[in-house]
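Following up on my earlier thread - several people asked me to post the actual chain instead of describing it. Fair enough. Here it is, all 149 residues.
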Amino acid sequence: TSLGLRFEMWRGAASLIGERPILGWGESGYAEQMQALGERGVISPVAAEFGHAHNDFIDATAKRGLIGLVILLALYLVPMRLFAPGLSHPDLTVRSLAVAGTLLPVAYIDFGLSQTFMAHNSGAMFYAFWLAVWWGSFSAYKKRVQALN
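Reply from S.P.:
Thanks for posting it. Predicted structure:
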């Protein structure tokens, strides 16, 4: 099943992470090693055919090591931290924009548990575009409210 294949991909990627935890395997090394795990029967050969682990965090760690995982976490946590002060702002528009800006990385974290959105151009571009829109709107409106007070 789809879920069973994900478990197999995660198991194979976890095995690869254990072998190269700091820098990972890279894109081509990951594909080669997963294929080898499939050929040896360590994981399902069908699961070995996928180019990613169907989990952003596992995939980033297997391909780019702990360094890649830290960078991925920073892509989510830094914007959340930057929007956080606006979550308690007295102006409802500022607060709403802060919620929208915070929910974008939260949603990507959630989606990334079963799919590698950041491994796809469309997923990364959608994230970057909407992050820029929410940050620009939040910053501009917050400055406007501060100027009026």
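The chain has one domain: 2-148. That should answer part of your original question.
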